[in-house]
Request: fold
Amino acid sequence: MFAGALLATAVVQDAGASASSADSLDLAPLLESYNARVEGALRDIDSLVVRQEMFEPQADGSELRATAILSYKSGEEMIREVLSSDLAHPAGQYRLSSLVGPVLDEDEYVVRFEGVEEVGGHECYRLAVGAIARDADHFDGTVWVSTADASPVRIVGEVADPPFPVVWIHIDKTFERHASGLWLLYRHTGEVEVSVLFVKKKGLRHIFYEDYEVGFARGRELDY
Reply:
């Protein structure tokens, strides 16, 4: 059992009572618990397999689709096996952190508590985040964290500094609770604007992740 996360979660739950009745919250225990859960998942997941379904709407009302299997093994890069695809351009790279959620390190993000609200049927702390590290791996936006166990429920924002020739990337991610207790990425909607020779083009893609199979270190699922 991940004792550190459970201890920090207990602190967050105590803080939740006062947060629900006031517009203030001590962020330190909340972020400690949230980061402990994300970092614990990244450390303890030994293997992962998930089905990925992509949908890319077209101007004529049709859509391009792709189906793939993502496979991860601890210490190795994630592998994407394409089962079928209508997409003509690369699908990008995937890491375990993109499925588990971002670490909100105080050296990398400025975080502000904005209140408590319901998202997808879950009571959440709403956090405004601003990236200190201005690169493609960080973002500015909003993170909704479950008041029940300090896990990511939804993330909306923009990539801090997209790679050329991309000038703007909007992300909208929702997470769902896995049988192990972990919250894992279920839907990722991304909108991208690319500038090439003074011509700007936009694209939209919806990605769904289903049928997770997760194996943990020490040969057993942990109670998160």
